[in-house]
Write a structure and sequence with these properties.
With 565 residues, this protein is α/β, with parallel strands linked by helices. It is built from 18 helices and 25 strands. The chain folds into three domains: 87 residues, no CATH class; 230 residues, Spore Coat Polysaccharide Biosynthesis Protein SpsA, Chain A (Alpha-Beta Complex); 217 residues, Spore Coat Polysaccharide Biosynthesis Protein SpsA, Chain A. A seven-stranded mixed beta sheet has the order 17-16-15-18-23-20-24.
């Protein structure tokens, strides 16, 4: 069984020259500075293990054989001076860490972020000092705070003089604090470092504006799920740059790629340095033992776990395995009858796109209507009286929203609006929605941004699917917000309207505006995706079967873990 450093020392017998016991504090690393002490051990590995533990390189294990040594008053203080020094360094380094959890304002996501915050604090209980832990959504009222770069001046101003690292974590990232501290000590924090788990494109992609088209693999960017870090010198320089040259007012599409591009600055700044210990393996995976970070799940966790995986030893955790298995890992999926699905189409796509929808995911729906510029009873489609436009479709989308509340369709708590070339898994959406309160105004999907550096707004990109709670639709239409033209970009207009109502965008990386080929393979490898978009240059039926049909992709991930076990 594993031991913490404190419990390790509670196993030892400390004696004075006269044979009196010396009481070592049982809680916390308040190490008694004893002069003229000596360790007599049966194996040099014991000293190595103690030094290793107090240098923050990992917990002492049963291999150390705690019963194999005693401490006597025999005149050799060097070992304990080393231990004291190592402990002091460990505490200092933890105090110089700043964690930023990339949290969101929605109540479910606040709970997820606070759970991670508690887990980190729990791991610091054996230290006299703790790192700073910040929740991103609390740091600024600025709509663009989630895009990170606008926050760098704030982080530099508050932590740029007394810290060493800023570590960014997603809500589902899990951290082994001791291991992460050890990893960061390998890098000279006085220099500029940009650390993370590297991703790269296999082909040039529209979501990255076809950057590095000659060699897409040449540029690496971090997988946020594994955590990523900036050294303070790099943070301070970037903050100065942002204050001197305000961020451009353009689109934010794939934040992790755009952050890496901004830092690299066409070769003037550092590239991402890959850190093998930053991982996206599930925390239960045996191969994750060497990892400093893992992910809690491939899909959302909608109930509280009774114990923190990193607050107790792995061997103790194993003894609770039957208890964990007896628990449902998620809330009950939302009833399919409680989701109304609206598919936007037009006459020219009735013969090619609509049949794909019917052949793939439409059969999963209970309540679904196709909305077109032409009423075709063979499908059937509904003509909303809005002329088709080559782009934007704002008029059609707002007509759908009005119909949803009109009484012409069954009353449901949830509305999903998709394009006719969207591929989606409704069972996975049902599971995801179980995380959220339908009584709250929810606006959910893949988040993009426009002009975030200069007071812009966020929006859900339409191609991956836009999900609304009924309450969000009610507040939107009551506000009177509307399209400035029928061909205005519907997703962006919705973003502006809901931003004005202070209904935040709720982001899920499981929705995708593009095809699977447009995303890094390793990024999709630790996901259970909900949607993809576009039929261009792919077989959409084959893509649906591979990535979205039923729970085949989920079972593949589970089977992979079982094989490793």
């Amino acid at each position: 069984m594993g031991f913490s450093v404190t419990s390790y020392y509670s196993q030892l017998t400390f004696l004075t020259a006269s044979g009196d016991d010396i009481q070592i504090p049982a809680k916390g690393p308040r190490f008694m500075v004893l002069t003229n002490l000596y360790l007599r051990v049966n194996s040099p590995l014991v000293i190595k293990d103690i030094l290793s533990a107090y240098s923050c390189t990992g917990c002492v294990t049963e291999k150390s054989n705690p019963d194999a040594f005693e401490v006597f008053f025999l005149g050799f203080p060097g070992v304990f001076e080393c231990l004291k020094r190592s402990l002091r360094i460990c505490q200092r380094d933890l105090k110089e860490l700043v964690f930023v959890i990339q949290s969101q304002r929605n109540s479910f996501h606040v709970r997820q972020a606070e759970k991670l915050q508690r887990d980190l604090l729990l791991q610091t209980q054996t230290y006299q000092e703790s790192p700073v832990i910040l929740l991103l959504h609390t740091l600024s009222e600025n709509e663009g705070a989630w895009s990170v770069l606008p926050l760098l001046p704030y982080l530099s101003s508050n932590f740029g003089k007394n810290s060493s690292w800023i570590v960014f974590l997603e809500e589902d990232t899990r951290v082994k604090l001791r291991k992460l501290n050890e990893v960061l000590q390998k890098f000279d924090s006085r220099k500029e470092w940009f650390l993370g788990k590297p991703l790269h494109d296999d082909e040039s992609t529209i979501i990255h504006h076809y950057a590095f088209s000659e060699n897409p693999r040449a540029f690496e960017y971090p997988d946020f799920s594994a955590g990523w870090a900036l050294s303070i010198p790099l943070l301070n320089r970037l903050a100065d740059k942002i204050e001197d040259e305000p961020l451009k007012s353009d689109f934010t599409i794939d934040l992790k790629h755009e952050v890496a591009l901004y830092i690299w600055e066409e070769g003037k700044g550092p590239r991402l340095t890959g850190v093998p210990e930053l991982c996206t393996l599930p925390e239960q995976n045996p191969r994750a033992e060497a990892c400093a970070t893992t992910v809690s799940s491939h899909s959302p966790q909608c109930v509280e776990a009774p114990l923190s995986a990193f607050s107790i030893s792995l061997s103790i955790l194993q003894s609770f395995r039957p208890y964990f298995k007896s628990m449902s890992p998620q809330g009950q999926p939302v009833m399919i009858e409680n989701i109304f699905v609206a598919v936007k189409t037009c006459k020219k796509f009735h013969s090619d796109r609509v049949p794909v929808v019917k052949k793939t995911w439409a059969k999963q729906a209970s309540l679904l209507e196709f909305y077109s510029d032409f009423a075709d009873p063979s499908i059937p489609t509904i003509n909303l009286g809005v002329p088709n436009t080559e782009r934007g479709h704002c008029g059609k989308t707002f007509a759908i929203l009005r119909r949803y509340l009109s009484g012409h369709v069954p009353k449901t708590d949830w509305l999903l609006i998709v394009d006719d070339d969207t591929l989606i898994s409704l069972p996975r959406l049902q599971t995801l929605l179980s995380c959220y309160e339908s009584s709250e105004p929810l606006y959910l999907g893949e988040r993009y941004g426009y002009g975030l550096g200069q007071g812009g707004y966020s929006y859900i990109t339409g191609g991956g699917g836009m999900v609304f709670s009924r309450e969000a639709v009610v507040q939107l239409l009551v506000s009177g917000c509307k399209c400035y033209s029928d061909d205005a970009p519907d997703d962006m207009v919705l973003g502006m309207c809901l931003s004005g109502l202070r209904i935040p965008v709720t982001h899920s990386p499981l929705f995708h505006q593009a095809r699977p080929e447009d995303y890094a393979r390793e990024f999709l490898g630790h996901q259970t995706p909900i949607s993809f978009h576009k039929h261009w240059n792919i077989d959409p039926v084959a893509v649906f079967i591979k990535w979205l049909k039923s729970d085949q992709h989920t079972e593949k991930l589970k089977n992979k873990t079982r094989e490793e076990l």
